């Protein structure tokens, strides 16, 4: 390693560390649940892209669309396939598609894209069909899936290109779809296929290279005074027209149309008269281009005004790794469309158009409004009756001046690391009688982040690894009634329960987890689902306070006896239950810190070259700060006893030792004998058979010790570095300033070991995203996550909840 490259690594790490320290807003999941085999998985060999889903509770099936196949899976266990139907492209279609320059095996296939319910037995299904979108009816009768073979034209209902985003929705018998209507993908439309088909204008002021992500229906005609109509809302990103940039900038939008729209009589014939759009605001805590909406979920309330759209945003440029969730109330969006100002194009210079706020007179009935009492009073019962003045206005000015602001002023959640891809939200009735919105957010590396807003503080309860390999989650569906989540990716569909309270084995664990689905049942002494606790009176739940005073005293942790052989390195394992907890090691009432003798790492404590004076009692405590209160819990206790060869006066026999070390190598033999002069006569301490775990551990120890040798090199580096010739120094200085940055400071004085920096680097690079660097360092080599014990506890303060942009 040349000096320069070493420097760049150190600088890079420092940048990384200090950035993470500066960004206390970014959420860290409290628990990381690694991939479990118990999850119910469905996939068929040779079939890929499981990315369309339709839940049919009434039929007891989950309909799953993949590439050239549709499955009916048992809704209670998706591993159980009830029926399947294959819809392959014909050779002829594939040939035509290939002639047009598309990839035969990837693009010229039939990707099932649209799956909607028509009636009790029938579904409407569309596929890309080798760049020739086609739709059909499909029945599920007597356990059989069958395509009717009607083969309707699918243009505008389904994309040509399987990689293009799209959205569709069935309302009554009308199919609303947002996609591209031509082969090149250059003519975007929002289409209603019905007896009276309507579409958007082909004008860039209506849609400019959009990426449609979501559509939903809001029954706004219900219980209104102004006689308003029901609406279909859609979310997409497109090229901005409102910014003056030399290069293209994308913005996120919400648009809506009225259900009763029939188009105009002369102007806007067979086009929407009610297509209005507005910019969605979701500001990230760092300066950046507007983030891009990736997925949306409508959490419905009985009162539609209180329904809330939850939207996932990712950065526009690949440089950033920060995603966010913003929430928008239906009433806020509605206010902008119903009362907000419009934008209007003005020509500046010769050919340049600028969009500015329209200040002139707005015609009546209001352009873009649905037919409501105002229009009816004017004798206009249908959009066909609207005057040209109103229609021309809206044809030329579909964009609102004001952006829609998030419900909470800023993002609900900001997450660094693997980008967020999909979102669903469940409303959970907790024992305190309140409803909590629990978000399940899929990531691009196959995880689900489960987050809840507890009294204004956003909190990621856990992250769950759904897929063994890091694949993007491409669809997420929730069955609130069944308490199940269904996720799809290229490689299969997975079913996951919304909660697994049995993961928390003690009362304190159960309470501190603050999962609205879980409560401690004092009768059964188990952490159980709130829906199944034997009686609400004997159940304990404390979501806001995390009040554990009602919990019984935990049993003291029994000390594990342990043999100490002078000169050996000793490893005492201790795995914390929470990523937000700090580890606290004590030896005879003294707190231990990482130094030349002790090495505290994610999996435990390493005592380097133990001596006789190291015998005694070791305690590993976990300290977790919640709302400023410390929750201490003893995780492990070890009694280190000096090993005497004769075994005289020593009740710890070597034989006993073997049993334990075979498990997880408490005593570690280093792989570098030259550093370990006294390797002989230690048979009892050698693990019988090295498990994977111990192999990696050995490696780790070796690296640690080797790193002592690189001390000199690092010394040089730090000397130069301290001279302040490099940019990154600025960050380093800031880093050492605050408590929050102790973590990085720790790197400095831990013996200045290169390899320690390397070991810890990738972990510290993900203070809020325990899943972004899987390939880098994995102590156990089994995909399990580890948390740096020295991680900054003060990152708890902000927990990703940003009330106000001024904080930034
Ligand atoms: C479908 O899955 C295959 C296999 O993983 C992948 O190569 C391809 O890109 C996927 N296609 C789409 C449209 O996602
Ligand atoms: C789900 O179905 C699979 C395949 O039939 C079966 O092996 C598994 O035991 C089932 N799981 C449950 C919980 O019923
Ligand atoms: C369901 O819809 C299909 C297609 O519109 C129709 O042919 C069928 O008769 C309907 N079935 C029922 C039970 O309504
Ligand atoms: C609109 O509807 C009202 C009552 O439904 C009716 O009296 C009126 O004639 C209609 N107006 C037009 C222009 O159709
Ligand atoms: C719930 O968690 C427990 C303990 O980790 C595990 O044994 C069980 O399989 C999990 N259940 C499900 C359905 O994932
Ligand atoms: C918990 O740990 C903190 C931090 O180490 C300490 O200050 C506090 O006294 C401990 N509390 C209890 C009850 O052990
Ligand atoms: C070995 O480890 C397993 C799982 O980590 C644990 O269940 C078992 O009790 C351990 N056995 C010994 C002897 O420590
Ligand atoms: C190894 O340890 C034994 C006793 O444990 C001691 O007598 C011997 O001198 C040591 N050897 C070296 C090379 O340190
Ligand atoms: C160690 O593992 C090897 C191969 O895995 C096996 O043959 C041997 O019996 C094992 N030794 C002990 C003591 O378990
Ligand atoms: C000597 C020693 O540490 N024995 C322990 C080995 O592990 C078992 C189970 O974890 C303990 O019960 C023994 O005390």
From TrEMBL:
Task: Report TM segments.
Answer: 701-721
Task: Write the gene name.
Answer: LOC115007550
Q: Which family does it belong to?
A: Belongs to the semaphorin family.
Tell me which UniProt keywords the record has, alphabetically: Disulfide bond, Glycoprotein, Immunoglobulin domain, Membrane, Signal, Transmembrane, Transmembrane helix
What is the superkingdom listed in this entry's lineage? Eukaryota
Recorded GO molecular functions are: chemorepellent activity; semaphorin receptor binding
Q: Where in the cell is it found?
A: Membrane
Q: Which cellular component appears as one GO term in the record?
A: extracellular space
Name all Sema domain ranges: 30-498
The stretch of residues making up the signal peptide is: 1-20
Q: Where is the composition biased (Low complexity)?
A: 656-670
* Protein name as annotated: Semaphorin-4E
Q: Name one GO biological process term.
A: axon guidance
Pinpoint the Ig-like domain residues. 552-636
Region Disordered, annotated ranges: 649-691
User: InterPro entries under this entry?
Assistant: Ig-like_dom, Ig-like_dom_sf, Ig-like_fold, Ig_sub, Immunoglobulin_dom, Plexin_repeat, PSI, Semap_dom
Q: Which PANTHER family match?
A: SEMAPHORIN, SEMAPHORIN 4D ISOFORM X1-RELATED
